[in-house]
Write a structure and sequence with these properties.
Number of strands: 16
Distance between the termini: 34 Å
Order of helices and strands: HEEHEHEHEHHEEHEHEEHEHEHEEEE
Radius of gyration: 23 Å
Shape: globular
Largest sheet: 9 strands, mixed
Helix content: 25-40%
Mean pLDDT: 94
Length: about 375
């Protein structure tokens, strides 16, 4: 196996960690001998579990091979601090690894080059850079949380070809196919948390969990609920996970009823008596949310877009034409309706893919990933 092939295999392994690693980054590691034989490979496990490097070392041990003098290919700088687990640098040094090839430095201030320094101090050769863009993209939420101190916000919507997400009477189930809904659950599974508004909770009584794809975890559910109108009997409480409700003010009786169902109620208000959405994102970052998956109604979608808080759109477009109906976001631009096309929100298409009879589009706010 060539060096390029080893790095690509490590990236492939990192993808396998994408739905389980949060809040840690998704990392892959491949250890090869001098002649290119794979001695061990692995990826990051669930939070509190082994990191990619440890899994690769364990794999080598299970194969009965010695890794002294070998090269470790890893998609992110090995950690150098004690967090939920011990430093991966120390494990690589103790194993006698000769060289470490890393795709990119860890943006976590607790690491941020210190891992490389520790490896070099131990006499290990360090190379940085192969497939750096791919590794960063795979962990865009982790980089966002570490650098911007907010999660990467991905707004998901299912719409007709003419951009309608519901009929005028609010009916929206189902515009897209079962295949598209299952694909949407896969994106839910990789998220650090799922966000919705109280309007959606009251109108649709959704579970907003991961059930159409296999998953080892249920991301926390975040509800924007200025007046604490979430019913304690809502179906969302049937799912075993964290529920974080953000209000503009605390009604003790309502809060107590929701907390009795296991919810955590926080009050973060803006001057207009609504939930301060920017402050909410900062609070979610403090709760270690890397990617925030938004599935909300057109009003909350519009508020997030008006405040410039949406980084990426995940759109499922059905081959249907509805005509009159509700759109993805109400009043998405500051100041209301645009008078110039030059003021439209600029997006960059990232991918197009057929999902059943529907089309999945990932579009990113232009320049949003340059941090």
């Amino acid at each position: 196996m060539s060096s390029d092939e080893a790095v690509r295999l490590a990236i492939s392994l990192a993808h396998e960690a994408n739905a389980i690693a949060a809040p840690n980054p998704a990392v892959g590691c491949v250890i090869t001998s001098a002649d290119g034989r794979v001695l061990g490979a692995g990826h990051t496990q669930q939070a509190g579990g082994p990191h990619a490097e440890i899994m690769a070392l364990r794999d080598a041990s299970a194969r009965g091979v010695v890794v002294a003098g070998a090269t470790a290919y890893v998609t992110l700088e090995p950690c150098s601090h004690h967090g939920r687990t011990g430093p991966c640098c120390d494990a690589l040094i103790a194993a006698g690894i000769r060289k470490v090839v890393a795709s990119i430095a860890d943006p976590n201030p607790l690491v941020a080059g210190q891992g490389f320094e520790r490896l070099r101090a131990a006499g290990i050769e360090v190379e940085v850079g192969p497939l750096a863009a791919e590794s960063r993209e795979l962990n865009i939420g982790f980089f966002s949380r570490m650098i911007r101190k907010t999660p990467w916000v991905r707004l998901k919507a299912a719409a007709s070809l003419d951009g309608k997400t519901a009929l005028e009477n609010g009916t929206s189930q189902w515009i897209t196919s079962e295949a598209a809904r299952a694909d949407g659950h896969a994106w839910r599974a990789r998220a650090g948390a799922i966000l919705t508004g109280v309007g959606t909770v009251i109108e649709d009584d959704p579970r907003l969990d991961v059930r159409l794809v296999e998953s080892t975890r249920q991301p926390p559910l975040v509800i924007v609920d200025s007046r604490l109108q979430t019913p304690p009997t809502a179906r969302l409480f049937e799912v075993e996970r964290k529920v974080w409700i953000y209000a503009a003010g605390r009604d003790e009786a309502k809060a107590a009823a929701l907390e009795a169902r296991g919810a955590t109620v926080s009050c973060i208000a803006n001057p207009h008596g609504k939930v301060d959405l920017a402050a909410l994102l900062r609070d979610l970052a403090a709760r270690e949310v890397n990617e925030l998956h938004v599935e909300a109604g057109h009003k909350l979608n519009g508020s997030l877009m008006r405040e410039g808080l949406v980084d990426e759109l995940l759109l499922y477009v059905a081959p249907k034409f509805i005509g009159a109906g509700l759109g993805i976001a109400s009043r998405p631009h500051p100041g209301g309706a645009l008078t110039s096309l030059g003021d439209a929100l600029a997006l960059e298409f990232r991918s197009f893919e057929a999902v059943g009879p529907d089309l999945r589009i990932v579009a990113r706010v232009a320049g949003r990933d340059r941090f």
